[in-house]
Amino acid sequence: MSDSTTPAFSLEFFPPRDLAGQERLVRAAKQMLAIQPKYVSVTFGAGGSTRAGTADAVRTLRNLGCDAAPHLSCVGASRQDLRDILQAYKNEGVRRVVALRGDLPSGMGGDAGELRYANELVSFIREETGDWFHIEVAAYPEMHPQASSPSADLDHFVAKVNAGADAAITQYFFNADAYFDFVDRAQAKGVRVPIVPGIMPITNHTQLLRFSEMCGAEVPRWIRLRLAEFGDDKASIRAFGVDVVTELCQNLLDNGAPGLHFYTLNHADAPLAVWKELAV
Ligand code: FAD
Q1: Domain residue spans of the chain
Q2: Sequence-ordered alpha helix ranges (H) in the chain
Q3: Cβ(205) – ligand 1 distance below 6 Å
Q4: Looking at ligand 1, which atom is closest to the CA of residue 100?
Q5: Which of 21, 47, 77, 255 could form a disulfide with 81 if both were Cys (CB 3.0 to 4.6 A apart)?
Q6: Does the CB atom of residue 206 touch ligand 1 within 6 A?
Q7: Ligand 1 pocket, 230 CB below 6 A?
Q8: For this UniProt entry, which segments traverse the membrane (predicted)?
Q9: Class of the CATH domain delimited by 8-277
Q10: pTM of the model as a whole
């Protein structure tokens, strides 16, 4: 994307776990190069994926010509672990990273690591590597599920930005007003970095409800009811999902969102269908 007024699209992938998954990732990424993504990112630790899996997927995507950003979470990690990972990415010429606290696997307890929150990770990355990395952090328009209040969560977000983040990607949401309200409140606290909405395509009713329950994203009642009515009719769910998500994206872009970050789940079809409908 050539100028700051053109919305920037970015794409999120997860590390494949087997050969079929690897082929799916490459296929999806190749199809989605049509969008000319500003960058792509690869999740870390989520669903049991490993550090090596993230690094491998980043390499695969960079070999396809994408600017690829690994996600890096500090939960369960020592400073030395994080230093080693950052150095390895630096040695490979990676210039972006998505910095997160992450979550310990539920019910497993264990060592929380040396850094407690994402703002400490951002500070650590800046201390260790200066301006080498462009750092993205997470934002929660509908509040992070563990936060004590929306204003406390906002303050914690502002702390991450002040620690040196260059941009933010939001948790997904289906209510655009939550995003606009969050951006207004962040800007009122002096935040000037882009806050890019994270967009979850709607393709699978059960999976959407499960993810949303875990991450605290609200699926509006009318969407849940429509999806329930479609039952196993995948084509109708898909068509409805493309309509709903396209309308959300258009509203966001028309009202000032600086870009869109698609959670692809390693499938190109739904994000591409939305992108093709957008008037940008
Ligand atoms: P933080 O910003 O540290 O916030 C976590 C919680 O702590 C919030 O409730 C916040 O309000 C609170 N908090 C922050 N600072 C303080 C403080 N000083 N005192 C008290 N409370 C505080 N997870 C993965 O495992 N792998 C991934 O690849 C991944 N990618 C993601 C990408 C995006 C765009 C998003 C939105 C989320 C992603 N997640 C991923 C999920 C994320 O790890 C979880 O939501 C995690 O619970 C919080 O991470 P965070 O970086 O937002 O944490």
Answers
A1: 8-277
A2: 19-32, 51-63, 79-92, 118-129, 150-162, 176-188, 205-215, 221-230, 234-254, 269-277
A3: no
A4: 51
A5: 77
A6: no
A7: no
A8: none
A9: alpha beta
A10: 0.96
pLDDT tens-digit profile, the chain (280 residues): 445 568 899 999 999 999 999 999 999 999 999 889 999 999 998 655 678 899 999 999 999 999 999 999 999 999 999 999 999 999 999 999 999 999 876 655 567 889 999 999 999 999 999 999 999 999 999 999 999 999 999 999 999 999 999 999 999 999 999 999 999 999 999 999 999 999 999 999 999 999 999 999 999 999 999 999 999 999 999 999 999 999 999 999 999 999 999 999 999 999 999 999 998 7
Token pair 């201390």: residue: 127
Q: Whose CA is nearest to atom 11 of ligand 1?
A: 153
Residue tagged 């007024």 (tokens): 5
The DSSP result for 186-204, as a single string, is HHHTT--S-EEEEE-----
247 is catalytic: no
Q: Which CA distances in Å does 211 have to 17, 180, 228?
A: 19, 23, 16
Residue 101 CA to ligand 1 center (angstroms) comes to 5
200: tokens are 């979850």
Q: Which residue among 12, 120, 136, 142 is the active-site one?
A: 12
71 ligand 1 Cβ < 6 A: yes
Task: Looking at the CA of residue 120, tell me the nearest atom of ligand 1.
Answer: 3
Q: What DSSP state is assigned to residue 141?
A: T
Q: Whose CA is closest to 70, among 25, 17, 14?
A: 14
Query: CB of 46 closer than 6 A to ligand 1?
Result: yes
Residue identifier of the C-alpha nearest atom 29 of ligand 1: 43
